[in-house]
Amino acid sequence: MTWPAPGICYGGDYNPEQWPRDVWDEDVRLMREAGVSIVTLGVFAWGTVEVADGVRDWSWLDDAIDLLHAHGIAVDLATPTAAPPSWLLTAHPDITPVLADGYREPPGGRNAWCPAHPVYRRYALRHVEELARRYGAHPAVRLWHVGNELGGGNVRCYCDRSAAAFRAWLADRHGSLDAVNEAWGTAQWGHRFSAWEQIDPPRGRHGAPNPSLYLDFERYSSDALLTQYLAEKEVIARHSAAPVTTNFMVGAGAHIVDYASWAPHTAVVATDHYTLVDDECREQDLALAGDRTRGMSPGRAPWLLMEHSTGAPSWQQRNRAKDPGEIARNALGHVARGADGVLFFQWRASRAGAEQFHSAMLPHGGTRTRVWREVVALGADLRRIAEVAGTRVEPARVAVVVDDAAGWALQHGLMPHRGLSYGRELRAWHRALWDRQVLCDVVPVTAALDGYDLVIVPTLLVVDDDAAARLAGVPERGGTLVVTYLSGICDADGQVIPGGFPGRFRDVLGVWTDEFYPLQPGERVALDDGSTVADWTERVVLDGAQAVVRYTSSSLAGAPAVTERPVGTGAAWYVSAALELDSLGRVVDRLLAETGVPRTVEAPAGVEAVRRVGPGGSYLFLLNHTDAEHAVTGSGAADLAGTDLLTGAAVAGRMLVPPGAARVVREHRTHP
Ligand code: GAL
C-alpha cells in the first residue's frame, strides 16, 4: 500500500472539535514545528457532526481537513462509530451492551454498543457512508481508521440479540445441534440441548459455564466485532481508494478479540500500546507487543503504532510521568520492531471531559514544558532516521507461538490453577530472549514455522490438529521445539485429549505427565539447577526423552522437570514447571548454544538491540533502558561499524551508549 506520509509517520489523535477555531491555527503551526506528518481525526466525532437524526453539520470537519491539508499534514480519518450520539442512545437505549450479570451499560461512555444490534449497525453504516462519500476522494485523507480499539474498548454483550446471533454463529460453525452437543460434551450435568433456543451466552456471575461454550462465545464475540469492522470497510471502499485499518490493542496476554485473524483484513496492521505503572519491565512489554504486532502483520510488513503516550495516562491508579528520554526510547522501540509510524493519544491535552488529565504532545503547560521539547526533539530524530522507513526487521530465527483462543481457555472455568494468566509464560520466555538481545517473532499459531531454528510454545492449552502437526514438524526438520506446561492438553473444542498430558505433544516430546501438582501460595519446589519454582509443577514420566533439570524436593523429588528428546538433528524440549527467570535463562542459554542462534549484539541486559534491513542498508537500533552507560560490541566475530544517524557519530568496533539513550546506527554491512 502507499504509506500515508513520507518517512516514519509522526502525529497523534487530533480533536479540534474540543477547541475554538483560533486554537486550530496555533495547532497546525506547532504541528509543523514538531514535525507532525499525520493526525487521526474525528475518532469520537459522530455526535458533533450528526447533531440530530439525519441532520449533519460538516462545516467544522470540512474546515479542519482543509486546514491540515493546506499545512501538508495527512489525515487518518476515523469512522466515529465507537461513540454513538446521545440522541441515538436515548431513542434506542437497548443499543448499549448487557454484561454477563444482566446489567445494561448506561449511556455516557464509549465503545458501548451491541455488535448484534441492527439499529446501531444501520445508523453506523449510514453515517460512515456519508462520511466516506464526502471525504473519500479528499487528497488529505491518506488512511481510514475504523472505530476505535474495536475489541479492546468493547465489552462482551450478553443480551438476547447477542444470544440469537451466537446461536446462528454456532449453527454455522458446527452444522447441527447434535454437533454442538458433541463438541461441548453436554452429557455432563445433563446439559444436552434439544433446541437452539436453549443455548444462551455464558451469563451469570457465579457458577461454572461449560468451558467449550465459553470458548465458542469468545470466538463468536471476536467475529461479531470483526463483522462490524468489515461492514464499515466495505462502505468506505465504495467511495475511497485510501487504505483502511483499525487500531488493535496488541499486548502480552489473551486479547479480547483474536486480532491475528483480523490482521489480513487491514491494509496495514495498526496497534495502540500503553506502558503500565506496576509493570516491573515496561520496556520488555513494549518490545513484546511490537514483536507480536509484527508477527501478525502479513509478510512482517511495517506496521503503525496508532497510539501511545507522552507521559501519564489517566486511567491507572497512579498515573506515572515518563522519565526524561523515555518518550524517545519508547517511540524508537516501536520503530526498531517494525513500526513505520509512531502516533500519540493525543495532540493537545483536553481541558474538559473524561480525559482532561491525560498527557498529550502539547501539554496544558504549552510549549515551555519538557514534554513539548521532547516531542519536538523526537520529531527531529524521526526525520534523521527517515531512510529506515520501508525496511524490515531482520528475519528472526526464534518464534514464540501465541493463540488467543488458548489464552481464553486457560483463563476461564474450573482450571487446575485459576491464578495463571496466559501472558505469564509468554512474558517470561520473551524476557529471557530480550535480556540477551535475541530477536524473536511472536507469531499466531496459524503461522508458517519453516524459517525458525527455535520455536517456543508457552501454555498453548488448546491446539487443533493442523497446528499440532506443524509444531511436531519443527524437530523433524532439524529445528528445536520447546513446549511448556499446560500445552496441547485440549482439542479445538476445549475437550481434553485422553491418554495423559500434554496430549497432542506427548509423542514429539517423548514424555507424559501422570499428574499436575499446582503449588499453594508460598509453596516452592527445588530444582537441581539450584533454583526453586512456585505455582506449577508436574509428575513427568520419560518416554523417549531425557531429563535436563530434575525436581529435588516435594513428592516429585528425582522426577524430571525439564526434558529433551533428540530428534535427528533437531530436538523437542518439555518444561513442566513455571521456571523463574534465572532458571529459565539457563535453559535459554543452552537452547541458544545448541541451535547456534546468535545475539544481535553483545551487551548487558537492559540494553535493547534490534536490526532493520532493506535493499538500501542495515540499521541497528540500540536502546539503553538502564541508568548506567554500557558498551555494546558486535555479536561473535562481527564488529560494529557505521554512523549513528541520531548524533552523526562514527561507530567502529565498540559503542558506548549513555544511560537512557537511543542510537540508530547505519551499518557498513550489506545484508543478505
Ligand atoms: C486509548 C483510546 C484513546 C484514549 C487513550 C488514553 O485506549 O483509544 O481514545 O482514551 O486510550 O490512554
CATH top-level class of the domain at 42-245? Alpha Beta
Biggest sheet layout: 9 strands, parallel
Output the CATH topology of the domain at 42-245.
Answer: TIM Barrel
Rg: 26 Å
Strand content: 15-25%
Number of helices: 16
What does the model show?
The protein has 672 residues and is an alpha/beta fold. Among the domains are: 42-245, Glycosidases (TIM Barrel), CATH 3.20.20; 398-595, Rossmann fold; 601-667, Golgi alpha-mannosidase II (Immunoglobulin-like, Sandwich). It is 29% helix and 22% strand. Strands 7-6-5-2-1-11-10-9-8 form a 9-stranded parallel sheet, with helices on one face. Strands 12-25-26-30-28-29-27-24 form an 8-stranded antiparallel sheet, with helices on one face. The structure holds beta-D-galactopyranose. Beta-D-galactopyranose binds at residues 148-149, 272, 274, 307, 309, 313, 345, 355, 358. Beta-D-galactopyranose (GAL) binds next to loops.
Which descriptors would you attach to this protein?
single chain, alpha/beta, TIM Barrel, 8-stranded antiparallel β-sheet, 30 strands, globular, binds beta-D-galactopyranose
TL;DR?
This protein is α/β, with parallel strands linked by helices.
List the helices and strands and how they pair.
Elements (H helix, E strand, L loop, with lengths): L8 E6 L6 H14 L3 E4 L8 E3 L2 E2 L2 H12 L3 E6 L6 H6 L26 H18 L5 E6 L13 H15 L2 H8 L26 H27 L6 E2 L1 E2 L10 H4 L7 E3 L9 H15 L6 E5 L18 H11 L2 E6 L25 H15 L7 E2 L4 E5 L1 H7 L12 H13 L4 E5 L9 E4 L7 H12 L3 E5 L21 H4 L1 E8 L6 E2 L5 E2 L2 E7 L3 E5 L9 E8 L2 E6 L5 H15 L5 E2 L4 E8 L2 E8 L5 E5 L5 E5 L5 E8 L4 E6 L5
Parallel strand pairs: 1-2, 1-11, 2-5, 5-6, 6-7, 8-9, 9-10, 10-11, 13-14, 13-15, 15-16, 16-23
Antiparallel strand pairs: 3-4, 12-25, 17-20, 18-19, 21-22, 22-23, 24-27, 25-26, 26-30, 27-29, 28-29, 28-30
Helix pairs in contact: 4-7, 5-7, 9-13, 10-11, 13-16
The chain binds beta-D-galactopyranose.
